[in-house]
Write a structure and sequence with these properties.
The complex is a heterodimer of chains A (about 250) and B (about 400). Chain A has about 250 residues and is an alpha/beta fold. Chain A has eight helices and twelve strands. Classes of the chains: A alpha/beta (about 250), B alpha/beta (about 400). Chains A and B meet through helix 2, strand 7 and helix 3 of A and helix 6 and helix 7 of B.
């Protein structure tokens, strides 16, 4: 489904990704682990289409078609969803209004009918219940005044409602207490399906205690340096990045 | 105007001389950022009928007392039965009846002494609205004044509002014009003790039009006035608003928002005059400026020596959508009392890239994301309109204007 081919990316003339290659098949869960500064967040932003990143080499394919030229909203319409490490606060826009606007924008782009208010509310309520999100939170402006855990649960809610095919989770576990971590992980496990793939980007192994990945990749200095099964995460946890000859800035 | 009382005839004559003597504002500190074309004169701005289609007013407010004006002339109204003692009528009708309130309020000649456009308005007004609400009456029905200026018209309208103690009323204005129309509206609000006045105006003139507005309000003790102006139209517009807190414990809201594009220029100049103790003023002014548009905010807060315990707040924020857009802001605090709380702030910014990316990554096309952020920026001003039906009219006009600005941006 997703193929990243020898991707090279620079920010302000500094090369961050240095020929990164990765294949993810439909239904697979991949984890990328790496120390701070290895380029993990850059990878997630580039996949979602953020400007200010210069792709200097390689390509990204979704279903064998390059997405490099596509705007973020076009990638979203194809089913790419990025769960942000730092979800953005947007004062003045009620969360529920935003969710419905996003759902309908995606439905229009995917050639589906818009969802009406009653159906939207029903689906929103269902998804919110699983995540322990109160109605009151949905009336508040997007992420404004939310705790770290609340913001991550809100990302999980969007993930559930927007029906992506490829979910990229950027350090979702950072700043989460153990209860919130469990809720977010359960959400992923509930959404796992043969058509939906996940790329979980993380510094630590603890999220992978709840979500069992099909493959684990270790990233350092803008490249994947080692790949393996779920047990690779445990080895990393036991020996640290140093055991793999990687310097961890953290 | 037919059936003009003789006292008015005399005042108009005096006002006309005054306007001619003063000439149009030019090279004055108060008009530092806003220029009236130098070729214009007092005579060019005399009341004039326009040409073109008679317009159909489509905006409605349910249960409202509605008065429609075209080129400054009263056309028709929907006047549901009002509670006993309340008066809402075209000014021409009130003058024909030689109404005492009208005479008293028009007789307040101070504002026109130094300002030619107010003097000219007195000399030239062809109609307007007169509102009187007796003691203790809360007028449930909003009063909706709809004005339209046809092509090349010059309209002068006068709005007089007097609320007796503990009364309450809501005035909503929707102004539209065709090409090159000029509008000059003067409001006077006399708000009695404990009374509450809500005043919401939507200026949605043609992009080639000119619009001057003057608002003079005086507040007795414990009264509240709530002004909100939304400026979307006109090439050149200026709203000059003076609010005098003349009784202890009075409160005023002097809020405004503008969404401009092209070469539009909109000036919001306010004076809040705290003359008594325990007064409160709240001011939120927001400008969203695209194209080569220019916004001006001059906000003066005066606190007199005996106006102790005054609580003043002023916030001015601008969002610049293009590198050629410009905001000129001049806040002024003149405080002569020693026990007061006055704060003001100003920000100028651009659309937040991180917020844009966040929304787009959720599937919102760039234009929709932009519109949502602009609406959000203006929301805390527009949301000050408490009645849903009225707020929706303003939001709909805003959204329409956003569409126009986006189309214009897309063509470049």
């Amino acid at each position: 489904m997703l193929q990243i081919d020898k991707l090279r990316v620079s920010v302000d003339d500094k090369e961050i990704l240095k020929g990164l290659t990765l294949d993810i098949n439909p239904g697979e869960v991949h984890a990328i682990m790496g120390p701070n500064g290895s380029g993990k967040s850059t990878l997630s932003y580039v996949l979602a289409g953020r400007e200010d990143y210069a792709v200097t080499g390689g390509d990204i394919y979704l279903d064998r078609v390059s997405i490099l030229e596509l705007a973020p909203e076009e990638r979203a319409a194809l089913g790419i969803f990025l769960a942000f490490q730092y979800p953005v606060e947007i004062p003045g826009v009620p969360t529920a209004t935003f969710l419905r606007t996003a759902m309908n924008a995606l439905r229009r782009a995917r050639g589906q009918d818009e969802i009406d208010a009653a159906n939207f509310l029903r689906r929103q309520r269902e998804a919110a219940k699983h995540l322990g999100i109160a109605d009151d939170m949905l009336k508040r402006p997007i992420n404004v005044g939310f705790s770290g855990g609340e913001k991550k649960r809100m990302e999980a809610l969007q993930m559930a409602l927007l029906e992506p095919r490829l979910v990229i989770m950027d350090e979702t576990d950072s700043g989460l207490d153990i209860d919130a971590l469990r809720i977010v992980a359960e959400n992923v496990n509930r959404l796992r399906s043969p058509e939906r793939s996940f790329l979980i980007i993380t510094h630590y192994q603890r999220l992978l205690d709840y979500i069992t990945p099909d493959q684990v990749h270790i990233m350092a200095d803008g490249r994947i340096v080692q790949s393996g099964g779920a047990d690779l995460a445990h080895k990393l946890e036991a020996g640290g990045y140093a055991a793999f000859g990687i310097k961890d800035a953290a | 105007m037919s059936a003009m009382p003789s006292w008015l005839e005399q005042w108009r004559g005096e006002a006309n001389e005054n306007a001619l003597r003063l000439g149009l504002p030019a090279r004055q500190e108060a008009w530092k950022y806003t220029q009236i074309p130098s070729a214009w004169s007092v005579d060019k701005l005399r009341a004039k009928q326009g040409s073109g289609e008679t317009v159909k007013f489509t905006t409605q407010i349910k249960n409202a007392v509605t008065l429609d004006f075209v080129d400054g002339k009263y056309i028709k109204s929907k006047l549901p039965t009002l509670p006993a003692g309340a008066i809402v009528m075209p000014l021409s009708e009130a003058l024909a009846k030689n109404d005492e309130t009208v005479r008293r309020m028009l007789g307040n000649s101070t504002p026109g002494k130094t300002r030619s456009l107010i003097a000219l308005n007195l000399a030239e007004f062809t109609d307007g609205v007169m509102i009187y609400v007796p003691h203790g009456l809360k007028l449930e029905q909003p009063i909706f004044m709809h004005t339209h200026g046809r092509t090349d018209s010059v309209s002068h309208l006068r709005v007089l509002v007097h609320l007796e103690a503990d009364a309450e009323a809501t005035l909503v204005q929707h102004h539209t014009t065709a090409e090159n129309a000029i509008t000059n509206i003067v409001h006077e609000f006399d708000i009695g003790a404990g009374a509450r006045m809500h005043h919401y105006r939507l200026q949605d003139d043609a992009q080639t039009a000119t619009h001057f507005t003057f608002t003079e309000s005086q507040l007795a003790e414990d009264s509240v006035i709530d002004h909100f102006s939304l400026t979307l139209g006109a090439r050149l517009s200026r709203h000059e608003i003076t609010t005098r807190l003349m009784g202890d414990g009075a409160t005023c809201y002097v809020n405004a928002a503008a969404l401009l594009g092209g070469t539009q220029h909109a000036d919001f100049t306010s004076i809040i005059d705290h003359q008594c103790e325990n007064g409160q003023s709240r001011q939120t002014v927001k400008n969203v400026l695209g194209g080569k548009s220019r916004g001006v905010f001059q906000g003066k807060i005066q606190v007199h020596p005996h106006a102790q315990k005054t609580d003043g707040y002023q916030m001015n924020q601008a969002l610049l959508l293009s590198p050629q857009a410009e905001i000129d802001a001049k806040p002024e605090l003149e405080i002569y009392a020693d026990d007061v709380k006055c704060s003001h702030g100003a920000t100028v910014g651009q659309l937040d890239d991180a917020a844009m990316f966040y929304l787009r990554s959720r599937g919102l096309p760039a234009e929709l994301a932009r519109a949502l952020l602009i609406e959000a920026f203006l929301a805390d001003a527009v949301n000050l309109i408490s009645q849903d039906e009225i707020r929706d009219i303003f939001i709909a006009a805003l959204q329409h204007k956003q569409g126009e600005i986006s189309d214009a941006a897309a063509q470049h």
